[in-house]
Design goal:
The structure is a homodimer.
Chain A (H helix, E strand, L loop, with lengths): L5 H18 L3 E4 L2 H8 L11 E5 L6 E5 L3 H7 L7 E4 L11 H12 L5 E4 L8 H10 L4 E4 L5 H4 L4 H24 L6 H14 L37 E10 L2 E10 L5 H20 L6 H14 L9 E5 L2 E7 L13 E5 L2 E2 L4 E2 L2 E7 L2 E4 L8 E2 L1
Chain lengths: ~375, ~375
Amino acid sequence: MPAFERPEYIDRITKVKARMEHLGIEVLLVINQSNMYYLTGYEGRSDYVPQMLILTLEDEEPKLILRKQDVPCAVHSTFLKPRNIIGYPEDYIGTERRHPHEFMAQLFKDWGIDKRRLGIERSNAPISPTGWDRLKAAMPNANFIEAAGLVAWHRLKKSPAELVYMRQAAAIADIAMQTAIDAIAPGVRECDVGAKVMAAQCMGTPDFGGDPPRPPAMPSGKKTSAPHLSWSDEVYRPNQPINIELGGFRRRYVAGLSRAIHIGEPPGRLRALHEATLEGMSTALETARSGRICEEVEAAFRATTRRHGFEKNSRIGYAIGIDWAENTASFHPGDRTVLEPDMTFHLMLGMWYDDWGYVLSETFRITDAGGETLAKLPRKLFVK
Amino acid sequence: MPAFERPEYIDRITKVKARMEHLGIEVLLVINQSNMYYLTGYEGRSDYVPQMLILTLEDEEPKLILRKQDVPCAVHSTFLKPRNIIGYPEDYIGTERRHPHEFMAQLFKDWGIDKRRLGIERSNAPISPTGWDRLKAAMPNANFIEAAGLVAWHRLKKSPAELVYMRQAAAIADIAMQTAIDAIAPGVRECDVGAKVMAAQCMGTPDFGGDPPRPPAMPSGKKTSAPHLSWSDEVYRPNQPINIELGGFRRRYVAGLSRAIHIGEPPGRLRALHEATLEGMSTALETARSGRICEEVEAAFRATTRRHGFEKNSRIGYAIGIDWAENTASFHPGDRTVLEPDMTFHLMLGMWYDDWGYVLSETFRITDAGGETLAKLPRKLFVK
């Protein structure tokens, strides 16, 4: 069953079509699987093989072209009529003699859409250079128009039904982070803490389960200088810092959450950075209200932490929703996106140095009064 | 710490260079992150941003160009000298005004390699059409040569050190599958079984922990017609089939394992397909010995199951190792790869129909006497 009712999908599609018309696009080719999920509910995590969604201005429903083996997954998970789900034969897999994009191109010719104005997501699409070159070669007269972000920007502002999932995801993130904090202790293997965290992410709450999660980042010791490392099978030792960034996952909507933990008394520099970041986060959340622009949120944070002697050199957050980052708006200098109610962001305030680092993050919703964080866990530097 | 000693990496690099010379490639650009891991140990799962490995015929070590934030991860996880790990600035992230490939192209010019014969993995590289077009635009005189599979084919035959990890991965897969079989029962939520399975994948054994796992596929009921669906938060009901495909993950090496489970007495068609597949698997494993070719393994399986009235319409297996499928050799008609000792494959014998399906799989090693399976779990149709 898809995560939403049919009218929600039709509403999304209608908005995307309006944007297509505005850009002079007659047919939209969607490759990014988070965008496919947004428009149809297709749950397959199958973009290791070529697949595509096709939306014309005339059709009410888009079509999906998938590997034949993945068609039943689409039948079970999307709101589409089965006739709009097309499989390409299995003998297109694991061979260099034919390419699924050639199968698709032939269909486009059969449907008479190959010479129309085709929007395609070029800049954020996991198709290989070969796939792209073969698609172009199979449709030499096609008129491709850049459509990167066309769907993704519509995902930024969440509907009430999406916000229900985002809040559930945040509740799961709270539980998973508390599980990590409880489990970390000297002598415990990192992978065993990882096991408890991932189990908590899956179980969710008695009222709603979690989706298959992405593993947490949880570097320890000097590896805290790296934001994206996971666990090892070493045991925790006294006087180690641990930085945890994890997500709650619910019907593919994600709430990111990060906390720093220290086994034993934290060093002064870590406490100082925590205090500076806490204050910076408050300022950023106050600034992040409807009508303000993305770069102002970053500027407010920067001014606050600079007074404490700390400077973050990377963006301080990004739009979040389906499958984590949406790759649209970011809080960094130059991003002039105007904030609107119900946009959701992951405010990610990690700072990383040569042999240590610190993280604090919250997923929040834009309101007229500022950013409303979705998780409830205290913003402490947790000491074990 | 990298998963292997320096000489193992140097040996891999030497073999890759020999192949480069054979193909007339002076500089190899590697984009696929499993190939990056194979050649350097780089553990980042960071290919949602552009990154590249550069290997020239002259240099002993390759270079990595990563997002600046990911450089410490490479310092911690690779065998490379820190000077061979280069970060591009954070202001290349989240913007359309500049692209990391432009930064890379400038470096290639500085190094004087931009006009040399550049091998690039086109057909299996997760770079976007925009990234590819920008790279070509930034190096208008570059001479790009298709190098797809150049590194990946070297991964097929495993070294003794790799086989240690493959066997550990298989031991973890055994534990995780047994955990699923034990946990499934009417009234239990699917996500709670998922939680136990993922915890088992993470914990591994007391001697070695598991890596962050990919979630199991575990469709139930009519959803068993789809191979790649995960869990829901519904409870299991009497008389339901469940198909589980999961991996054991160890230092990024994967052993895949699949079993079918039925709550209550299985229907006759399921038992019949199980018996046919069991016999087909034995024949396939006997055929899969050194000197035979891939398509013969498929033909042996096909002939056996056909006698039972069953026909599998997709490939029956593929090379497996780092990060699951290697995208090189497959067991399907037309694949003329000659089998050599210590190649590893995932023999995946799923068959899927309109409203049901069945799975049985084993990860195995080629020997002179046939395929040696790495997991120990009985090949039963498990009844709960």
